[in-house]
Design goal:
The protein is built from 25 helices and 25 strands. It is an alpha+beta fold. Helix 4 packs antiparallel against helix 6. It binds pyridoxal-5'-phosphate (PLP).
Length: 791
């Protein structure tokens, strides 16, 4: 259709008189065409003629007789849209189209003079009109959410007629200028001109860049029904008469504008509607930036079109000018707002940064390394230790890749917290979606916490069936300690020689990586980890003598806690029989066995989902953390029901953030990714590949000692020619690899073991990049030639 024709169309439809059939005529028509008889009640309409019919059988329908200028193809588009919505989102309360006796969705009828009209019948939706009360708050957010759902349902809808030109479409706002002379009040004309100028300047050039689709384009309180006793529950969406293809954000501005009328704080009301919409469809910055002017444009549109149409349809004046004065008032109030401030509030509601905040972040990015480091030391104190001789300023992550502030890319072979890959979209979306909806404490009922507890405990052996959620591994181990003391009635703990279990007061004392063994308090004694160093190994790894040492200090055994991946000890898994024997002896001494899966859990070890499964032993308590939320602080304690009961009798336990809906959404998403992407299997296969290649490499490079660990958690000992651990060389290799774009760490009692612990989406191709950097580091640091071309 040419532009001229389109203009013709839009003018016609708004200018042509509404149909004016008598009730008797309509009764006869619907009886003949649809076989419906009953009482008719006229309904109001801008340009059509509508009736409600109540049939003798109790059925209720809406009869819609279209304006003679209405193109049947557009009515067809509306009918098809209703069908589409019912298919895509059946719970959206939209009417259904009733077919005529001829099986048609649209029938033609004629008035006496011969003018043709299209008629159709829709099911009547029950519900109340929303309260006409400007202070009504209950409807704001649901209105936004409902519009979002409607737009989402229409996202994939297409109709060849969808690009027809309708003056009620905000992208045509500039065309309103021609009707300004119909506004009699000079102040109002000036106000309209002011906002039209703003539209032309701020919105018009951006419209072609905005997301567009077919939208309802008139979801306003007049076109919805709400539940009788619940003003915020929308039970009916009617009047698809203004549906068109336009910018998505126009649809939202159209809904917001009339809802601001009479509001004491229209900005807050607008923000509330935006927030509801954002819960369903995340908005883009470009859309939010034009919203202030689009809302004003819609308010102007309401009054300019009303002023023009009242001159053509003086009989329908009451319908046309209803609300005009309030709309002018809204425009006055809207103009009094600072547009930048309104936009800032809208951005906030959507969780996006405003421009000036982004700029301040950029300023920080431009700091010199030295000024950043001194600012850091001043603000964060001496404990804010950084990795690598040349610390990294990472600004972005994706999968196994990290990017620094200069755009350099690093292969991440170190970070286990980003378990399923940095910023995994499924996890990010789950967090964002739930953050937009609700975040509270576990003191309220919520489905996610139960689902997550179920999914975790399903992966544990019986009888580990109770899950308590916390935020960090330290808290989980602290809670395990409290449980162990409560159940055993004892006060002694056993740990391995060089381990880490947390940073709280109690768990620091279980962390020989933080305080040296000699400084441990008397209630904590050590045993041997299953390292390769057999010189110190005792038959029961030193457990009996450690229990005796506890006894000498007046403590009986309450807890044996083991990191099941023995990461700080150098990265090992339990050899067959190791855990079994320790657990048996611990139980015999009255203590509880805690499996700390903060490092080894969630499939990283490849062969098993949990580290304790390397033996047949079943722990009393399992603690989880780090990878559980892929970077979101989420941790848990899993235990037997009777242990949880004993703790509950002893004390009340509450954790403000533990198990909140956002954290649980993250936890569920992580488990889904592990399963859907078969990441445990990936850890197994790529881990085996790493291991095989490393064993071969050892033959050429004597600096590489033993390799130990499992799956995607591997320790590579760096040794001197005499076989002694070489921490300096390990450190130099780590820093050399960092300079060459591969991130690893060091671990073990001497820090002479390279720690390879990447996100478990790490592939063989990434392993190749890792090997190339490792070989280059060794060659260059030892002044060697590349060994037989293997580099
Ligand atoms: C085995 C183990 N347990 C517990 C923790 C403590 O976890 P968080 O740092 O989340 O408190 C860590 C942290 O590195 C750990 O490696």
């Amino acid at each position: 259709m040419s532009n001229t024709n389109n203009d013709q169309y839009q003018d016609d439809i708004l200018e042509t008189q509404s149909p004016s059939f008598t009730i008797q005529q309509v009764k006869e028509i619907v009886n003949k065409l649809y076989g419906l008889t009953g009482s008719l009640f006229p309904l109001s309409s801008e340009r059509d003629q509508n009736f409600r019919i109540s049939t003798q059988h109790g059925g209720q329908f809406v009869i819609k007789i279209a304006n003679s200028a209405e193109d049947p193809a557009i009515i067809d588009m509306q009918n098809k849209a209703l069908e589409h919505i019912a298919k895509v989102d059946p719970e959206l309360p939209v009417p259904e189209v009733l077919l005529s006796r001829n099986g048609l969705a649209i029938e033609q009828i004629q008035v006496e003079g011969g003018t043709e009209h299209n008629i159709r019948i829709l099911t009547y939706l029950h519900g109340a009109a929303p309260r006409d009360d400007p202070t009504e708050h209950a409807l704001l957010r649901p209105m936004g959410a409902c519009l979002g759902r409607l737009a989402l349902a229409l996202r994939s809808f297409f109709h060849p007629k969808a690009n027809y030109e309708l003056l009620w479409d905000l992208k045509h706002t500039s065309k309103l200028r021609q009707y300004l002379p119909h506004i009699s009040d000079a102040n109002h004309r000036e106000l309209a001109g002011y906002f039209l100028d703003r539209f032309d300047r701020n919105v018009l050039p951006l419209i072609p860049k905005l997301r567009a689709q077919i939208v309802h384009n008139d979801l306003v309180p007049d076109n919805i029904l709400v539940a009788e006793r619940d003003p915020g529950h929308i039970v009916g969406i009617i009047d698809f008469g203004d549906m068109t293809h336009t910018a998505l954000i126009n649809d939202l501005a159209t809904t917001i504008a009339p809802m601001l009328r009479g509001h004491t704080d229209p900005v807050a009301a607008a923000v509330e509607i935006v927030a509801g919409y954002q819960e369903v469809i995340p908005l883009e910055s470009a859309e939010l930036r034009v919203l202030y002017d689009l809302i004003a444009a819609r308010l102007i549109m309401l009054n300019v079109i009303a002023a023009w149409r009242v001159t053509i349809h003086p009989n329908n004046k009451e319908y046309i000018v209803g609300g005009v004065d309030e709309t002018w008032n809204s425009l006055d109030v809207w103009r009094a707002q600072d547009p930048a401030d309104v936009t800032k509030k809208i951005f906030r509601a959507c969780g996006l940064w405003e421009m000036h905040e982004v700029n301040s972040m950029q300023r920080e990015d431009n700091e010199t390394l030295q000024s950043h480091l001194s600012r850091r030391a001043r603000l964060l104190g001496p404990h804010a230790y950084l990795f690598y001789d040349r610390p990294l300023h990472i600004v972005r992550g994706e999968g196994v890749w990290l990017y620094d502030d200069e755009g350099n890319r690093y292969l991440d072979a170190y970070n286990n917290v980003a378990h399923v890959g940095h910023c995994h979209p499924h996890v990010v979306n789950a967090i964002a979606k739930q953050s937009r909806r609700l975040n509270t404490s576990a003191r309220y009922m919520h489905g996610y916490i139960l689902e997550l507890a179920e999914r975790i405990t399903k992966r544990m052996p019986e009888p580990l069936s109770v899950c308590m959620f916390v935020c960090t591994g330290s808290e989980a181990n602290e809670l395990a300690w409290q449980m162990s003391k409560a159940v055993s009635g004892n006060s002694g703990a056993l740990i391995t020689k060089f381990t880490y279990h947390g940073s709280s007061a109690a768990t620091t004392q279980f962390s020989t990586e933080t305080i040296s063994e000699e400084k441990l308090p008397p209630h904590v004694q050590t045993i041997f980890a299953p390292t390769s160093d057999t010189t110190f190994r005792k038959p029961d790894s030193g457990l009996s003598s450690a229990i005796m040492a506890l006894d000498e200090h007046g403590h009986q055994l309450a807890m044996l806690i083991l990191d099941t991946a023995f990461v700080s000890d150098g990265i090992y898994t339990s050899p067959k029989g190791y855990l079994n024997q320790l657990y048996e002896n611990t139980h015999a001494a009255g203590g509880l066995c805690v499996a700390d899966e903060v490092q080894g859990g969630f499939g990283r070890l490849g062969q098993h989902f949990w580290g304790f499964e390397f033996d047949d032993a079943i722990p009393d308590i399992v603690t989880l953390g780090k990878p559980m939320g892929n970077g979101h602080p989420l941790a848990a304690v899993v235990t037997r029901p009777e242990i949880a009961d004993i703790l509950a009798n002893e004390m009340e336990y509450f954790n403000t953030f533990g198990g909140n809906p956002v954290s649980c959404a993250a936890g569920l998403a992580v488990l889904e990714v592990i399963e859907k992407e078969a990441l445990q299997q990936n850890a197994l296969e790529v881990g085996q590949y790493l291991r095989e290649r490393l064993e071969v490499l050892r033959m050429d490079y004597p600096v590489i000692g033993e390799v130990h660990g499992s799956g995607l958690l591997q320790g590579i000992d760096i040794i001197k020619p005499d076989g002694a651990p070489d921490p300096e060389m390990a450190d130099r290799i780590m820093n050399h690899m960092r300079e060459n774009g591969v991130l690893i760490g060091t671990t073990g009692q001497n820090y002479a073991t390279l720690k390879i612990r990447p996100p478990i989406v790490f592939q063989k191709e990434h392993a190749e990049i890792f090997f190339a950097a490792l070989i280059k580091a060794i060659n260059e640091l030892l002044g060697l030639q590349s060994a037989s071309g293997k580099a």
